[in-house]
Amino acid sequence: MAPRTQTFVNRELSWLEFNQRVLDEALDPDVPLLERLQFLSITASNLDEFFMVRVGGLKLLVESGSGKKDPSGMTPVAQLEAVNERAGMMINDQYACYQAALEPELVNAGIARVLPEQLNERQSLHVEHYFQNEVFPVVTPMAMDPSGNQLPALSNLALCVAVRLKPEEDEQKHRYAVIPVGSGMSRFVAVPSESGYSYMLIEDVIRLFVSRFFPGEPIAEAVPIRITRNADVSARDEFADDFISEMETVLTKRTQGDCVRLEVLAGASRTLITFFQKILRVPDLHVYSIPAPMDLSAYRIIAGMEGFSSLKYEPWPPQSSPDINPQKSMFEQIAQKDILLFHPYESFDPVVRFIKEAAADPNVRAIKQILYRTSSNSPIIAALADAAERGKYVTVVVELKARFDEARNIAWARELERSGVQVIYGIKGLKVHAKICIVVRREHQGLVRYLHFGTGNYNELTARIYSDASLFTRDPDLAVDASAFFNAISGYSQPQNLLKLSMAPINLRSTLLDLIRYETERRKHGHRASIMAKVNSLVDPAIIQALYEAAQAGVKIQLNVRGICCLMPGIEGTSENITVVSIVDRYLEHARIFSFYHGGNEQVFMSSADWMPRNLDRRIELMVPIEDPDCAKRLIAILNAFFKDKAKARRILPDGKYEYVLAANRKKAFRAQESLFQEARQAIQKLRQEAPTVLEPLRPPPVEDPPQTS
Known about the structure:
single chain; ten-stranded mixed beta sheet; 27 strands; disordered C terminus; alpha/beta; globular
């Protein structure tokens, strides 16, 4: 048999297979109904971003004439064609899921969409009143220039109703207009019903009364459309004197980017489609006929509405960590030992509390932190501002290039500056993606640095749905490294001789390669060797090649890759010693955890970085060694839990496709996320049961002295 030459999966096609795994959750009858609807909406939102960024980038490559092949051997043209074909199949699967599987069950559960022809008299009056008072005064039709010389100012991803007008005097001269729905208008219009929740889609309401926008003119058709613009636009920060202004320019360009996808409701006339293709300059390849309802991402609102608790997951509230005493200072507890948290099974509150205590503690001299993504009402931002106002030295790196969070981060940067925080707007040519906070505190022995490292963002809201690890420590070597790392960022210099931390783009890749090669050499000499890793994406060719070489030497390699995986496992002679599983469940797997057997002295790490060129070459990232035995043991147990999963785990196949690890009886099989939640709950329950009972007598309140009179 001839040796196999193809050993890399195309990145874009691998991502689409990941999104299909998310769609599988929407199709799984064992998942509660509204959670299935939520998964479906996530696949639609994911696909929107994929077109904006990945397809947009491919389109630019094609237009530039680039014939450069990716590691899988595909040119940009071939990738674009394959992506559009696979995306079209996915859209068909999404609507088959909604129309055949979800919608009938939603109706049976009392959640029903009402079409215009289904309205009864009471509902008709209600909808007409809503249109006349809430819609008609707000929305404004926009005429389209038939010459195509002036491109329409249609917002990215905004739903519009495209209208074709047919004047009576000349039936050959059609006129066109669009009615933008607008993000400030509810997509779902509640209509009276005897039970449950009934709604009309806003585009159906507009189409029902569309003639009121064009009195006296015959309307040939009114059809919902939606455009997706190229958002693969980045700041030229190396040339920008005012980086905030440059980022604001990027945001403007993103709203005006070329159209990379035109979605038109199925049944629209070829005449209307051709017109919008012409004025938007969209080829047939990028036109998608969409069944109703358009924009399934909006259904997250229905999935998340109050009530209908029987149609949702059983609550898994974040548990308190048994390693953290709410009655003691965070600094006192970190001084005693390193503390590892695993969110969202354990609460993110200690991270927020750590920064709040630092802001209020008079012994704290300085706080240094990196913010990549935060919440809209962030208590961490408030604490940092409070610390600066109290006279502490506060330095914050706010990454303005965090895609789709740029506007929020610009606003936070300006607010922090107003409070006296020293704000650094990222680093030229690189994204700062590391997750670190340093608190410098004066104690009896001198200044002590307390550290927090994370695999996820400082966002208390996403910490409830993202699976991430947190480490609190005051290890002196890590403290020295952390300060050197932060000073290098703030001073635009090269960090010198890091003791324990590995940093991208300086030495993180080389450290990983050295660790993989060590296992390879150990196995070549007949010793036991193994690698376990949990990442979101595995794309980097050098890392993949090193893993292939390790596998060929006999190293046992277990990889948990949630999303993109360009490595092909199970190829005879190349990767038969590599297994790759992907888990999609109620929480988004986001932690990056690595373990190398290392001759029995296991080396365990957590990191902000995926194994991708962008993370290792174009971002500032950190990899943190976990040296505390209890913390390291726990991270290894977490890794093992995901490799034991038989309920949600899919095995990645050599061609990039996947299959369930366990084909049948998955409902009763081991489920990693459920097991981790139960462990967190049992740990805190055990602590409470073992806590000594303290009998505290009730005492009468003290008698106050009567007020004195002058």
